[in-house]
Amino acid sequence: MIVNIETLKEQLRLDFDDDDILVERKIAAAQDHIERHLGFKIEEEYPVDVPPALGSRLNLASTK
């Protein structure tokens, strides 16, 4: 996944593990939604580093 659960939990200020499975499923669903709009799998196109333009858009989306 392009966003790991630890980073998302930190941004959401979640400090418990009770909902980790639910959070992971929501991350996967969000990534799938984005990839369908992009027309390609992000991790297949960018397996190591997310391009700066895409990374900045992900950061902007997480602050809204």
Overview of the molecule:
- The chain has 64 residues and is an all-alpha fold.
- 67% of the residues lie in helices and 0% in strands.
- The protein has one domain.
- It has helices at residues 5-12, 20-38, 42-45, 52-63.
- It is globular and about 35 Å long.
- The two termini are 20 Å apart.
- The mean pLDDT is 79.
What's the N-to-C terminus distance? 20 Å
Largest sheet data: none
Overall mean pLDDT stands at 79
Strand content: under 5%
Radius of gyration: 12 Å
Class based on secondary structure composition and strand pairing: mainly alpha
Helix content: 55-70%
Order of helices and strands: HHHH
Q: What is the 3D form?
A: globular
Number of strand elements? 0
The number of helices is 4
Number of domains: 1
Characterize the quaternary organization of these chains.
single chain
Low-confidence segments: none
Q: How would you summarize this macromolecular structure in one to three sentences?
A:
With about 60 residues, the chain is mostly helical.
